[in-house]
Amino acid sequence: MIHVVGHTAVDHISRVHHLPEKNQSTHITDRQIFFGGGAANIAAGIAILGESVTLHSCVGDDFSGSDYEKWMDKWGIHREFFEVPGTHTPTAFMFTDETESQMTFFEWGASKAFATADAPGLPLVHMATADPDFNCRVAQKSEFVSFDPGQDVFWYTKEQLESIISNTDILFANQHEVQQMCTTLGKTKDDLIKEVTMAIFTMSGDGSMLYFGGRNYFIPAVPVTLVDPTGAGDAYRAGFLSAYVRGFAPLTCCQIGTVTASYAVEHAGCQTNLPTWDRMLKRYQANFGKIEKGKCQE
Question: Model's pTM, two decimal places?
Fold first, then answer.
């Protein structure tokens, strides 16, 4: 069982000509509403790939009976939810320009309850965007920790990052989040890598890097027609974690994460085009060859 901690949200995804400067405006050329939230995206990806997953999240009183709840039921996503009466389920407003740069405005809504919620101790947990103090407490109590600060990285203090990284086994981040963590901590990227057992840093369409066992490995992106980059990182993490619990070696896990992400970006919406394991495997073999089983400690 993989446990995922963090936001469940409703995504309002818009395309714009350009991201405006302060006190300026821009035209929205397309707007759609999808299921989202970093933790929920990852949980959905894991479930659709066929692994057992429990999502720990906060939702408002608008969630019960919603289409989102029915979607989670369809894929068998186990839930440990804090339902907060009188609040909205968190809502994200995302704007992507013609260069695929992105800006997000996030209404925390029910997720404010994370700050005072009891933190569970879990055997294997991935912590996505959530309240920094809550994530720190989960990391301190859990046995095996995968951590992804996401765009909430700017909300972490130096002390909180030091605490959570000291308890982290696998660190995920994109290039912007790595830079911010280094700035907050006053450390170099190499310093950061040395503090965890394994680090995976994604670089949008330029692929990703795995740092493990004193070595580094480059994983190229899978070429596809990009429709919407939103949720690519979450799909990558879902693929990686699903492969990891199946016993694949870290490099193979990264390749599986890359293939899973390639499906997510082909359609608008973070959970719209997530692959099953068999569907993922066909594209994996076309891009990386025969999948090799191996121990994750290799």
Answer: 0.89
Strand partners, 149: none
How many contiguous H segments (helices) and E segments (strands) does the chain have?
9, 13
Letter string b/e over residues 41-75, b meaning 16 or more CB atoms within 10 A of that residue's CB: bbbbbbbbbebebbbbbbbbeebeeeebbeebeeb
| Burial class of residue 22 (count of CB atoms within 10 Å of its CB; 0-12, 13-18, 19+) | exposed
C-alpha 170 chain-centroid distance? 13
Q: Could you confirm whether 234 is annotated as catalytic? A: yes
- 70-109 pLDDT, tens per residue? 999 999 999 999 999 999 999 989 898 988 788 889 898 9
- How many residues appear in the chain? 298
Asked if 243 and 49 touch (Cβ cutoff 8 Å), the reply is: no
Could you say which of 30, 152, 234, 278 is catalytic?
A: 234
The answer to whether 147 and 127 are in contact (CB under 8 A) is yes
Tokens of 245: 């619990």
